[in-house]
Amino acid sequence: MPVTIDKPGHSFSDATGSPEALSRRAALQRLARIAALPMIAAAFDISHAAPLTYDLKPVGIGEGVWVLYGVPEPIERSNGGAIANITIFDTRDGAVIVDTGPSKRYGVALQALARELTGKSVVRVYLTHFHPDHVFGNQGFEAAAIAAPQGVIDGLTSLGEDFASAMYHAAGDWMRGTQLMLPGKVVADGVEEIGGRRFALHALSGHTPSDLAILEEVSGVLVAGDLVFLDRAPTTPHADLELWRASLDRLGAIKAAHVVPGHGPVEGAPRGLEQTRDWLGMVEEKIRAAFERGLTINEAMQEPLPEWVGKIALARYEYERSVMHFFPRLEAGQWPRVDSKN
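Now predict its structure.
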């Protein structure tokens, strides 16, 4: 079912300042409450117009399997929010897609591309988690074909309007006409057989309270969603680091020919799992140490980072955002230790 966002006083349909347009003051007030949203740039410059056509370039990673790479940037007008990796599988019964991108415009283009690549309609769409760069393209597909764990649906129901406001102000006109469409099918751990392929579904958590990883057993392609980042710093607005590490353990036990991270290059080796785990450990150690030394949150944000993160895109940006996410939890005594049994 769709959650309507195009309505008087809160519209994606008109960015011209008409009475039906979203109130910028109201949206900015909302943004102040949701500063922890994932990967959204803080700049709202509207002095330039971007061409409103997504340049979708599928990269084959196996027979009948393609990935659309997101750019290693925050969500902003220059990229239309297209920062997440999207995966397309060809099956005898139709195309299967994992995640739908940041906007209706993207979802419509993705649906057309899947039909062009496979010569068939889309029969299943899986959502890996509720962050907007992965789900706001849902309108390009039938709700009945979109599947996600109940926790993902609950997260979208709870946070959808906040995500919508933030996406509109970050991506601007790219979001015109976008409404949040909820999945029509709930999935959990198990296997779905579709057109000669076997999709093993792993309901996990850690990056968010509900994350879905998918192993297509015929091709050996593991779509890890944002549980895995590679050469791009992980985001942590809704993270539980202990649960995230447990999910990485489960993913590490899966034999896969290719791992598709939520952001970053596809590789056959487990480098993405290892790099993600190292990043989480570094973030936790540095933030806790800064807190225990009595640093302020601003001082903690300026702490030097280890040399090994120098080649990871947006390392400083995401570290600073993680400080904003976790420092208040430390101050409130709500961030549990995982380095001690005490």
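The mean pLDDT is 88.
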